[in-house]
## 1
Amino acid sequence: MIHHDVIVVGGGLSGLRAAIEAKRAGVDVAILSQVHPGRSHSGAAQGGINAALGNHPDGHDDTWEKHAFDTTKGGDYLVDQDCAIQMAKDAPRVIYEMDHWGCPFSRFEDGRIAQRPFGGAGFPRCCYGADKTGHYLLHTLVEQAYKLQVKIYVEQYVARLIVHEGVCQGVVAYDMIHGGFEAFTANAVIMATGGAGRTYSNSTNAVISTGSGMFMAYHAGVPLKDMEFVQFHPTGLFTTYILMTEGARGEGGYLINGLGERLMEKYAPKFMELAPRDITARSIQTEINEGRGIGGGGYVYLDLRHLGAEKILERLPGIRDLAIHFEGVDPIEAPIPVVPSQHYWMGGIDTNVDGATSMPGLFAAGECACVSVHGANRLGGNSLLETIVFGRRAGAEAARYLEGLTEKRPNARTAFTAAQLMEQKVEELGAKTGSQDAYALRAEMTVAMREHFGLFRDEPTMKAGVEKLLSIKERVKGIGLRWTGSVFNVDMIRTVEFEGMVDLALTVGMGAVARQESRGAHYRTDYNTRDDVNWLQHTLAYYQPDAAGPRLDSKPVTLGPFELQERKY
Ligand SMILES: Cc1cc2nc3c(=O)[nH]c(=O)nc-3n(C[C@H](O)[C@H](O)[C@H](O)COP(=O)(O)OP(=O)(O)OC[C@H]3O[C@@H](n4cnc5c(N)ncnc54)[C@H](O)[C@@H]3O)c2cc1C
């Protein structure tokens, strides 16, 4: 059994930033991560990170108030305004901090951090490092974590929480290198495990974005919030769903339909290609559904040719490489076939503005958390910002929580039992002959999510989707392990986590059926307007061990200075 004051699960931007802050507060902190922190999905982020620095010639009048307003409107008013305001206020200082730590942001001629326009924003406020922003930010934080000698355990798959008398006291992890499960006790645990994109078959996310932090918290009794809100990015590559950053449109790229028109003229005449993602993705899908895809087919074009080779090579070199290698298209010479693709999880573990959950000792930050800054639809560039702002706040809050504790010795017996339970579970899975194939079931689930809970939703389609998920959940009981080796057993990880993924899928499905309105990314053809009278509220989903799906509840949205208005762009 290993003990640390604070354990952070996940080495992406939010986990690293949380660990750095806790360490700076003088507590003993360790990160447990399934992959080396530098390989976290944060490193795949391309386009940039928002902060009202006002550096762009067209952006001198930008302020944190305007950033908070754009965020609130972008989220279709399901945003807790106090949290959005806090994020927008914290943004400039965290950007300058990253800059001082050596993050190589792109620059304007006068040396100031460059900013580009991004969707749904009134000003160009997205700071970037070419189209490799996430990579640069991530490596800057990895360096800081090393410098502060944060203890980092890599290739550790965290499989469950240790909870003693309602208090979180650590985690159980599978040691991928040496085999076996180990209990790591702690006085505070910070979940920073990223999104759950791989619940869908058409995702831009890394294969490890399976939502494990969300379902661990959920299974331990902590509610998940607003899970029905799933973001589809307008531009994934047609054949692989690999992301083509919004920065490509921020730099002036066009979206072209089969008739050769700039399709956004019809849907968002003012913001055009830089309308928020929910609106842009639905516009593209409408064109495709109505036969105006390219050649009448299932995709449209992202056209960058008019930007010229020099700009593409300087600002979007990574996009060009990806388009060449994965779609066989050089954007300097030809338009890129794109299609809306699952991209981001607005919902997650319900936390307050400092990352605290309803369970003492358990905190969460980053994409796995739902502070409620994105509401029903996240704006591009706000997620990287969220990871750093709320990672920092969660780290500080966990350190404060420790100061207030009188009893700091986690219960060893509970921890030991939790590890044993995992060993036992895997043994049972290994002993099963396995009437069901875990991988075939997973494929069935991800396709069901795509087909039944996509961009356009209606009751019969969604109810049929929930039925499929319930049938999959039933059949999960019949899965076993293909391989029972103790070391680097990825088969075991994928099998163990699948049950949790189905539970997450059910929170999406049942939350979506229940919400009888259209708001942000949740668009219903049978209730196609926003209903503030009945639905200006967060959904909370509670795990019920004895029932197939969650118990749904609600929670008020925190309103503030920004009055509700119709969303037009
Ligand atoms: C292709 C792509 C491009 C993007 N571009 C942008 C952008 O330009 N701007 C923007 O604002 N946002 C962007 N986003 C969104 C943003 O990058 C993510 O929301 C954010 O980086 C998530 O960070 P995180 O720290 O929450 O999680 P991640 O970076 O996903 O890290 C998760 C960590 O948790 C660990 N982990 C997970 N499960 C376990 C487990 N069970 N046990 C142990 N460890 C575990 C992993 O090893 C990893 O270290 C993009 C996302 C994608 C997919």
Note: The first strand starts at residue 2 and ends at 9.
## 2
Amino acid sequence: MLPLILLSHIALSIAAPSPVCDLDKIAIANGNYTMSNGGNVSSKVEYTCPEGMYPYPAFSRECQYNGRWTDENVKALCKAVQCPSPTILENGAFSPVKRKYFTGDVLEFQCYGGFTMFGPENRTCQANGKWSGDNTICDDLEGYCPNPGTPIGASKYGSSYKIESKVKYECNSGLRMYGSNERICMENKRWSGAEPTCRYPYTYDTPKEVAKTFSASLSEAIESSNPDKVVGDADRKIQVEKDGLMNIFIVIDASKSVGPENFKTAKNISQVFIEKMSSFDFVPRYGVISYATVAKPIVALSDHESTEGYKVIEKINNYNYSEHADKQGTNTWAALRAVHNMMSLEHVRNATKFLLTKNVILLMTDGKFNMGGDPTGEVKRIRELLNITKVNKREDFLDIYVFGLGNDVSDIEINDIASKKAGETHTFKMGNINDMKEAFYKMLEDSQTIQMCGLAREPESLGNDGNKHEVFPWIAKITITRKKTEEKCKGSVVSSDFVLTAAHCFHPEDELHNINIKIGGDHFKAEQFYRHPKYNPAGKQNKNVNRSFDYDLALVLLNKKIEFSRKIRPICLPCTSGTSWALKQRGKAVTCSDHEKTLLPSEWDKAMFVAEENTDDLRWKHVHIRRGGKRRSCLEDTKKYKNFKHILDIKDLVTDNFLCTGGTQPKVDPQTCKGDSGGPLIVKYKQRFIQVGVISWGTINSCDKKTGKRLSVPELSYDFHTDLFQMGDWLKEEMPELEFMA
Ligand SMILES: *[C@@H]1O[C@H](CO)[C@@H](O)[C@H](O)[C@H]1NC(C)=O
Ligand SMILES: *[C@@H]1O[C@H](CO)[C@@H](O)[C@H](O)[C@H]1NC(C)=O
Ligand SMILES: *[C@@H]1O[C@H](CO)[C@@H](O)[C@H](O)[C@H]1NC(C)=O
Ligand SMILES: *[C@@H]1O[C@H](CO)[C@@H](O)[C@H](O)[C@H]1NC(C)=O
Ligand SMILES: *[C@@H]1O[C@H](CO)[C@@H](O)[C@H](O)[C@H]1NC(C)=O
Ligand SMILES: *[C@@H]1O[C@H](CO)[C@@H](O)[C@H](O)[C@H]1NC(C)=O
Ligand SMILES: *[C@@H]1O[C@H](CO)[C@@H](O)[C@H](O)[C@H]1NC(C)=O
Ligand SMILES: *[C@@H]1O[C@H](CO)[C@@H](O)[C@H](O)[C@H]1NC(C)=O
């Protein structure tokens, strides 16, 4: 009988006017709604609630064939958002203990004696139902792996943290898990998989959260595919070609529920993403796929245009949502299958090259898969093709990011498909596609200041197409014109607003319109300059220091925001989240002193500065930072210098705020000249450039007074640089967006 009933329904809907659902039943207390199709069949009502509330019983209703709304018997209302309730804090306590926690509630944590706290002391319940900050963990550091913690709202099974120990997680009832429900303590003292979180179904990631976590994870993938880097093991070095080092697959849902407007937005997101990618120092190959009942390639990886961003954008632009007309199911399996097929072709073409290529998949979906097989089976096949196994450490070669949009997505499904990597997020759930667009715009605005600092090209890699600015994209040339003189300094780009330089370059009375800044060939003016509040050249005259350079640091606010490109990029500053990414130190427990230990590990650390030999001819100069005993001899030598003999305590001149380079033992370091002032002292870590000091002053100026040419370095010649590890407090105050750490 069943088929007959169905048939009669369909017949009814064709013959008679559609039944109309009751418009009186859709009102929502305290909230608003929008409705499509005026209450006709399949008309959809979307609810919105004020911040900190969510629509109950659902975010939307649909008018069904039977003339009734979904959930029609339940009156819609906006309910207060809750954050998950904690069960226990292992080795510690939390307060207050309540049954429910609402927006604005603060949880405070304490660890028992003998246990150290990692993560925040307090966490606040946010308007989207998530607790602020990372997990709080109390650990005695006795395990082989650190305590992996228990997310709020979960129970953890297993408390042995030995090698190969396993812990399992379960979210409390009503909560959904993102991340790994099982983690294993690995040989490298880390836990496998991604940290789990538990959230209510009404919790969405905000554009700001997505921008931050997605760009962080993505820049990790980009950074490690630097074309200048030699891939392969030590004996068998393979220099990979410049292009095609990364395959990026953009997979767009074109099912019925998406609709033409949202599809257009999805195209826009893809375009913005590709445009921005093309400003980086690598050339990815794109595969773009739209899918509904079937998957259709918009751009195939094997197309010869697939490495040309603008061509790819053009093809996306010309693609029509209507291509999927009448076949508008959600076949996520087919979409991933299409990705797999494109990869297979590459594999057949040159397996060696394919296995050296990273793959990034961006999947956008607004619903559950309702046809085709289980998409996770296809993920497995992709992993097999890439030869990723639990043991062979090839996880780097695949990142699957899943963006679930709207309340029809299945949390389990999107989490199952997405990659799971420690310290990174690959599963995102957002309210709608406009939030995703906002996230992408936001990400592209801040990502490069925060996570993508310290990138540059090797001079040898420039070739014919390169521009010399790409080698020193963060160098700023500052010229201050005064009545009779002109002062020239260098500086470094540290954010889209600020150039960091030395305070002594400026006089308090300098007029802003007389300050010119040149970066990457572009001209800027100063909107304002800020000298470190403790910089006071005359402040130590009572200690016989005629001119003190202590706190010789300044920030210049530019008159317009910098648009980052290959020619202009920020350098990394110590103790910021960008540097944590560059150094691959992403744990919660990472501190400023971890950065210092990594960047300045010995008594004589390699560093470099940039010198302008002739106008616009910038060159690297390699020096050494003297620490410990070598710093003491730097101070003793400085004291011997005739100009400083009258200073009783040399530490009044060379305070602990200076890094010392120079000298002639055990090796002659090139010295800085006058115009170098304010420029960065840089440590190169792998392929990233991190500024550790600002060139301030030197004992002897042996540079030619007229030509500025570097002459031979005399004995007792040392240079001093404002130590940025000591300047965090002020920099943090001026540029909180760089996320300085303790
Ligand atoms: C409903 O929407 C209107 C106009 O967009 C707005 O002014 C009003 O504050 C909203 N009401 C609620 C309860 O969100
Ligand atoms: C609802 O359906 C009726 C009959 O099919 C049609 O005349 C009307 O335009 C529809 N209303 C909307 C808003 O689509
Ligand atoms: C945590 O909250 C308590 C009380 O609300 C406050 O006294 C304390 O300073 C907070 N601690 C931190 C680290 O914010
Ligand atoms: C994408 O959307 C933005 C803002 O809505 C618009 O300014 C831009 O022109 C669009 N881009 C494309 C390529 O359509
Ligand atoms: C897209 O659809 C529009 C209208 O249906 C049509 O005019 C246009 O030619 C289509 N474009 C492509 C590339 O098929
Ligand atoms: C395959 O790619 C590798 C790495 O790019 C290259 O060295 C090799 O010559 C290629 N082999 C063929 C047959 O093209
Ligand atoms: C896959 O990885 C394993 C372990 O690293 C290696 O032995 C094997 O040769 C790889 N297979 C291919 C096809 O590269
Ligand atoms: C510092 O000042 C003292 C006293 O004014 C003067 O004798 C000395 O030459 C000055 N030293 C330098 C290096 O300018």
Note: The longest helix spans residues 259-277.
## 3
Amino acid sequence: MFPVEKIRADFPILQRTVNGKPLVYFDNAATSQTPQVVIDTIVDYYQNYNANIHRGVHTLSQEATDKYEQARILLQQHFNAEHAYEMIFTSGTTHSINMVASGFGSLLNKGDEVIVSALEHHSNIVPWQMLCEKTGAVLKVIPMNLDGSLQMDTYQNLLSEKTALVFCNHISNALGTINPIKEIIDKAHQVGAAVLIDGAQACPHIKPDVQALDVDFYVASAHKICGPTGVGLLYGKQEWLEKLPPYQGGGEMIETVTFEKTTYAGLPHKFEAGTPNICGGIAFGAAIAYMNNIGFDAIAKYENELLDYGTAKLLEIDGLQIYGTTNKTSVISFNVDEVHPYDIGTILDKLGVAVRTGHHCAQPIMDFYQIPGTIRASFAFYNTKEEIDILVAAVKRAVAMFV
Ligand SMILES: *Cc1c(COP(=O)(O)O)cnc(C)c1O
């Protein structure tokens, strides 16, 4: 049995009430909650060894540098990267994607093609549009099916020797559907294109193996994996990170500077200009360690039980429709009849239930279904079936008010 009660005790926030009701937190796809070990790691940093890294000979600076580099190694092991210096600390997924997009600005030529999927988060659409505008490259879109899957035959037809880059999320944040990224990567490589996978939504549920995937770039945010906000990851294969120009100029990313010429530092420092989020990086490592202690197989199995239970219970409600119905993680995106998702979300909050309503930064998906948005309940490994019962009862109450 999955020790959910023991796990819940690790998360102090789960004890609080909202509007006089026990908090039911089902907005995990927007950000996850933080276990005490991660909070303790943050406090420990500021209480005991707060210092700038890599620069000082003094003890505090060395301690901070060691912990920060240990966190990088933890990330390397978690994602099974070949080298620790292929793990670049960023401020989050959006930052990571922009770094790659900006780097490709000097590698793409007019007429090159960039392929993105129809299931992307806005942070995975806008940087590529900007890149294409700047370089004259052409943006192509892999269309989606009604069940939330991608049209893989069309993808095959879009690929050609003109394809320079392919971008796709591992798991859609709006629908929770899992994309066939291995197939997407292999097919792109057959035409010599590079692939960036947005793992922001996948990493809370599965442990990606970047070498087995043979992916060129993989990005994630700590705050969706029990870590703090403001820190994330850019994994890049060494050969690609060496090919890309630096993103920002500043301290830490240079080897020598004169007014005539600057030579850049090696990896990972080339991409880590300025003082990074030191505490955040260390806490990111603590969060990854915490989740690995529980085990991603156990997490996935338990979350699947929650998904099946929640799906069955919600579908008992008349007029309830779920979007994204194939091969999913524990995210349920739904509407009830014509009731506006915002109206239901507001009532749910009054009853202590936190869900996300709206377009989930994925407006093209909402346009595809011709809906203004959805109600998205996203479950984490610290949620319970009892909480799902509370959600279902609350949705019923809300619907009764509006229908
Ligand atoms: C959350 C999310 C992002 C953006 O992550 P930030 O941490 O806000 O930068 C990008 N893509 C997907 C799939 C996401 O779920």
Note: The two ends are 40 Å apart (CA to CA).
## 4
Amino acid sequence: MNDKLITVTSPLLPNLDEFIPLLKDIWDRKWLTNNGFYHKELEKALAEYLGVEYISLFTNGTLPLITALQAMRITGEVITTPYSFVATTHSIWWNGLTPVFVDVDPTTGNLDPQKIEEAITPKTTAIMPVHVYGNPCDIEAIQEIADRYGLAVIYDAAHAFNVKVNGRTILDAGDMNTLSFHATKTYNTIEGGALICHDARTKKRIDYLKNFGFAGETTVVAPGINSKMDEIRSAYGLCNLKHIDDAIADRKKAAQKYRAALANVPGISMFKERDDVTYNYSYFPIFVNEKEYGISRDALYAKMKEHNVLGRRYFYPLISNFAIYRGLPSASRENLPVANRMADEVICLPMHAGLTEADVERILSLVRNK
Ligand SMILES: *Cc1c(COP(=O)(O)O)cnc(C)c1O
């Protein structure tokens, strides 16, 4: 097999002519971490770019989830989606809380608001939804339930970098929003992440918590963690931010070709795109209905791999089916039929800014000609 390898993702890398002068400057400054110059610059630049007021950088996208729950002093049970990356549920576990899984809406892959309400108990204190693949959750319905029952809402917005509804960011929904800047994500700082909140006082608490809880030289206000973003990755992030719009435009082109070519393939389905949403094209999931398509999802996945095209079965296995969580009462398959079906049928096709037209054609011919 000598077909060129097409990976599912490929990182946006800084232009070296732009990045190296910043590295030289960091060498001159000899300030490597702890809220340095580039850290502050990236926080400012991201706040402006994303249209949010208060953002704190983190060293990855998992620690802002853990810190958000800690910052809001969440207790008891947290309602969440099983159809996500494991870090979502892990963050609940790391705070000594009980995750309660709720099924998803088949049209978006996101938490079904009606089922959220059915899962509320006296111990429920928060909801942690995910905008899976960058598809916006039903933010209004979730907020209405949260307000009625007095619950906090912390969005895992790891896939929703710069996603907008009617031209307005969704990263200010609920009480807090987290982002991941991992190398596999649309926008990356190699490893990195952020926590977005609504006021200066909360940002201050978050900034203490990501630095061991230090508030000044000699005061520790809470058992915080070390989750600081360093200067080198902050500078890398500034360089990538300059080119992220072009990268998203390239992803969009690939997504449009996929969408048009797969629209009428029996047994292959996709999420519908909404006219009022500005997407970031972070993933391109397709769902394989074995009966109609003729071969199983895993058979298609294996065939693509044989031809050097790497898809990903995101999100399979479902979080609720991992050995560590499957004993929870909410983890049963009967409680989560939609999420289980999606996990059994999904393949994310390669999606990144470096895909050529020929790459897309090769991928499409594998899916169309089974
Ligand atoms: C990537 C991801 C995370 C974790 O981010 P890291 O930066 O890898 O720690 C959390 N939630 C979701 C939904 C993700 O996809």
Note: The chain is about 35% helix and 15% strand.
